[in-house]
Amino acid sequence: MSDCINYKLFINGTWRSGGTGADLPVINPATEMEFGRVAVASASDLDDCLRSAQASLHFWANTPAEERGELLIRAARILKGKMDVAAAALSREQGKTLTEAKGEYARAVEMIEWNGAQAAKLSAPWPIDPERLLIPEAIGVVAAFTPWNYPAVLNARKLAASIVAGCPVILKAAEETPSAGVHMIEALQEAGIPPGVVSLVFGNPPMISEYLLGSSLVRALSFTGSTPVGRQLAKFAANNLQRCVLELGGHSPVVVFGDADLTKAISAISEYKFECAGQSCNAPSRILVEKSIYKEFLARLVQAAEKIRVGAPDDPNVDMGPMANSRRVEAMERLTKDAVDRGARVETGGKRIDRPGYYWSPTILSNVPPGSQVLREEPFGPILTVAPFSAIEEAIEEANATEYGLASYFFTESPEIQKRMIRSLSAGAISLNHLKGVSADAPNAGIKQSGYGYEGGVEGVRAFQILKLVNGAKAVPLA
Ligand code: NAD
To answer: Helix, strand or coil for residue 108?
Structure first.
């Protein structure tokens, strides 16, 4: 292929091909055509990552926090300058629209800047009382694993928090969306990141994670992806007692009460649900609607879904692109068929779109019988189920009925109901009268099978620090 892009590994400050000599295809999900290759790391590449991380460990942890922060802020500016090119590459490999890709890069830049600005504050010791002090110190080498749905934001979040905490970080980014990691590392390189502080690898995910977590040099891991893989990594981490930040799946309910502002609720739901073709862990997936407004709500939601313009992600008139890979389309087909076989009604969509690419139509299912896979398995795609409820107790029970606990949403103007819902929903994040909630300055974490450990906010940096307790510190001023 003449215009094939070759994505390389970044180890000890230089770009190189993988030691295996092998590479993997990078596919455009809108055309199913290969347009690039990504290097596959060998065990010896990973040894080099570990060695260079070890060599930079002491130096980086002892670099003044202000300098680490300034470096991040410079990198954020550089990335901002390349945003159009980076967003076009992301859209091409992931399938999200160009507008969504630009929005994602804007958030990534904001995350890097926010972390950079916190560096001095988050490295400063603080007293418990006049005799005792807590000193935040870098935990050590971090292994970070990011998926293909929001690679720019997730790489930014994991890299920035590790760097600000003073930790060398080895990033294994998703092979299906390599450009996001490459652009981020190039920005850090141009900003002056010392060799060894960041490494970027691609290859065989289970081999890389097992190898890196098999080293006691790695002191923390941060993973975003599915619950089964998260569990597997937590088992590896147990052998070396590595600290885990696990951001896993979700199956978020939205409870819409009879007094809700329906226009606001419907536009918020359809906007977030169909962003990135529904492949977001926080996306709404189960809508529970009070019986008195159910019919009207369903009709208006179907209208909103039918207005979503699906097509090529680089077309400015398109709202939703293809799914990221063929696995997701197959999952949509399986979940829809299972629900329909059990008696569910397809209100709109429910099928592949007849064109090349991994396209699935915005889908709304009603009358979905209990036991249907789509009610319990994370759909991770543009499928919504809608069901009526009569009493708040019923809505709460159904909202909390999955093994996940990432995000929950509800719409009501009643302060009494708001208070009750906030207390009753089991999720790491709750939003009332709007959707979304992940920002640079707020901690984000799931509960139950959605994972543990915080990303984002002050807590996201603390995840990569230890707090050293110093007793009798009065006599030792530590400016
Ligand atoms: P998957 O579980 O195989 O992979 C998910 C991600 O984890 C990918 O980026 C993959 O490269 C990585 N991965 C897989 N095995 C790994 C390992 N042993 N070590 C390190 N990384 C590993 O599934 P998939 O088909 O790519 O995605 C499907 C499911 O993953 C979805 O249904 C969804 O539940 C979940 N997912 C969640 C998120 C999220 O934001 N929480 C993102 C992407 C995928």
So the answer is: helix
